[in-house]
Amino acid sequence: SFESAEEEYQGQTKRKRIRRKKQKSSVQISSNLHGEQTDLGMQETVVRDNLQLQQTDGPKISKNEKRKMKKKRQKEKKRAAGLVTKTTSVDFTYQPDKNNKEEAAGLKDISEKADSILDFLQATQQIYFADKKSECRDAAVNSATVQELLQCLEFRTISSSDVTHLHRLKSLLLLQDIERLKDALKQFQEQSMMSADHAKVATSLFHYWITDILPVKNRK
Length: 220
Description:
Structural class: mainly alpha
Number of strands: 0
Helix content: over 70%
Shape: rod-shaped
Largest sheet: none
């Protein structure tokens, strides 16, 4: 009875081992099958991609065009992933402002007119104070006030409207248009922005030209 029991025990263990081997072999087979299926799936995907590339590119597209299309696809993929940002062109071309040009031209014109009036009044006041006739002298006109007016013109502390008006008076004087000059002098006294003393000095020097210098020149 002991020997029969031992044989039965050994038979059971053998059957268990055979079953385990069968289970292992079935697992290996299923894994192998799964691996083969994945390999086949990858091969099919590669073949499908190649076919799509061939259909998209076509037989007539050159290698250079294919390279460009490949780079374009790579850029699109990077842009979709947020790796590439679209660059915007910036124009740094300098465009001078038209208003600044006009303003600069206006300042230059006023400066030239101020220099012209300064030279004119300097020469006039030298003749005026050198004249010994008492009747041509104006009591309001003195050397100190004249020098103040000349300094205002030299250092450009006089308004541009006064410079323009004085330059117009000088132009009418050179044209010897006496009637228009007298009207312009009255207008200057009414509209001038300079001090009353300086306006009086300028007006008196122009009147001195009308009453004394021009008649003498015309007689000669």
